[in-house]
Amino acid sequence: MPSSQHSNFTEFMEGVEKRNPGQTEFIQAVREVSQDIFDYIEDKPEYHEAQIMRRIAEPDRVVSFRVCWEDDDHNIRVERGWRVQNNNAIGPYKGGIRFHSSVTESVLKFLAFEQTFKNSLTGLPLGGGKGGSNFNPRGKSDSEIMRFCQSFMTELYRHIGPDIDVPAGDIGVGGREIGYMFGQYKRITGRWEGVLTGKAVEYGGSEMRPEATGYGAIYFLRCMLAHQDNDIEGKTAVISGAGNVATHAAEMMTQLGGKVLTLSDSDGFVHDPDGIDQEKIDWVKRLKNERGGRISEYADEFSNATFHEGERPWNVECDVALPCATENELNEDEAKALVDNGCIAVVEGANMPTTLDGIKVFKDADILYAPGKAANAGGVAVSGLEMSQNAERISWNKEKLGDMLTELMQDIHSKCAEHGDVGDGKVDYVKGANIAGFKKVADAMLAFGVV
Ligand code: NDP
Ligand code: 2IT
Q: Which residue among 135, 150, 309, 427 is least enclosed by CB atoms within 10 Å?
C-alpha cells in the first residue's frame, strides 16, 4: 500500500474503531475489506470525495428490540432481537437471521457489512442486512421455538417487506423457524408475499435453496481448481460444522469424487478415515434436523470414526479445508498446520471463519483461499431467485435452479479472477471479491448524490 493510502486507511480505521467501541467482529470485517478498497480507490478521487467507504461502513440503521416469550414451564423469558440494515443501494436489504447465544450487535453488524459485498457479487439486485437474537435454541422444545419465532416476528414485521428487507435463515434458523416466522408475518399483516426466503416449496420456497450454500461453495472450489488445471476427484476434505452448509458441502464434495474426513459442532469434531459418504451424511442430517443430537454420536454409530472433544479439525491432514461453522473458527496456528500438512485450498462456507492472521498465513503460503463472501454466496443467490419466483408467482424446477446456481458461482469466480488478477495466472480471491463487490454498490451510491 503506498504511504498516502496507508495514512488514509489508518485514519479511516481509527475512526471506525472510535465509533464502534468494543465491536471487534465488525471492526475486523471492515478492516479486511477496506485495506483492499483503499488500494483500489487510490487514483479514483470520486470515491474519496463522496466518502463511500465511510458510508458503507455505517449501517443505514440498527433496530434493536425486546423479545418476550413463555417457556414450557410458564417462565417469562426475555431476549434481545436485532435487524441491521446495512445498505440498500442496489436492492432491498437481504440477509439471514441468526439465533445463537453468541449473537451480539457487533456480530450482526459484521455479517450485514459482509452481506452487502457478497450480495453485490451475485450480480442480483440485493442490498445487505442481517438480523437475529441471542436466543439459544439448543434444547428448546418445538413449541418453545414456535413461540419465540412468533414473538420475534411480532416486532420484526414492521421493519421488513418484499421491497424493503427480506430476511432468510442462518445459524439456528432453518426451514422450521422460517415457517413459524412466515406464518406470523402473514397472520399480522394479512398478506402473502415473498417477505422471507428459505421457505418450504409448498408455500413459495425455491427448490435448491437448502442445498445452495454448500453446493455453491464446492462449485466455487471446482472453479478455483480448474483455473489451475486441477479438479476435485480424489481430493480429501476437512469440514467444520454439521449444519446446513457443512452437510451440503460434504454432499457435493462426495458427489464430485472427493472424500470428506471430518465434521464438527461446538462440542468437538469427528474424524472418519473411511470417508463420510452420502449414507453417513444423511444420518448426520437426521441427527441434527430431527433429533437435535450431538456430532459425538457419530463415533458411536460408525466404526473407525473418532470423536475429539473440544477440538477443531484443522490438524487433520487434507487437500482442502472447508470451514462451515462460524466466525473466527480458524486461527493463525491452525492455518499454519493446514499449510504444513499440504492443504492446497481453503474455501469458506461460513462467514469470516478465518482470523486476519490466519488469512495472512494462507496468502504468504500462496495456497488457494476463497473468502466467504465469494464462496458461500450461492445461498443468498438462490434466495434472490426465490424472490424473483415469488414476484412472478412462478416456480422453477430443481434442474433449472441447479444450472442457474452453477452459472452464478462461475460468474462470481470470473469476477474475482478479473479484479484479483495478480499475474502468472494467479488470483488474490480476497482482493477480487472485495473490489468487485464494492464497485457496483459504490457506483450506485455515487448516482444517488448525498443521501
Ligand atoms: P446451522 O445452524 O445449520 O449449523 C451451524 C453449525 O456450526 C452447527 O454444527 C453448529 O454447532 C456449529 N457452530 C455454530 N456456532 C458455533 C460456535 N460458536 N462454535 C463452534 N461451532 C459452532 O448454520 P448454517 O450451516 O446455516 O451456517 C453455518 C455458517 O455458514 C455460518 O457462518 C453462516 O453465517 C454461514 N452461511 C450460511 C448460509 C445459509 O444459507 N444457511 C449462507 C451463507 C453463509 P452447534 O450445533 O453445536 O451449535
Ligand atoms: O450469510 C448468508 O448469506 C445467509 N445466511 C443467507 C442469506 C439469505 O438471504 O439467503
A: 309
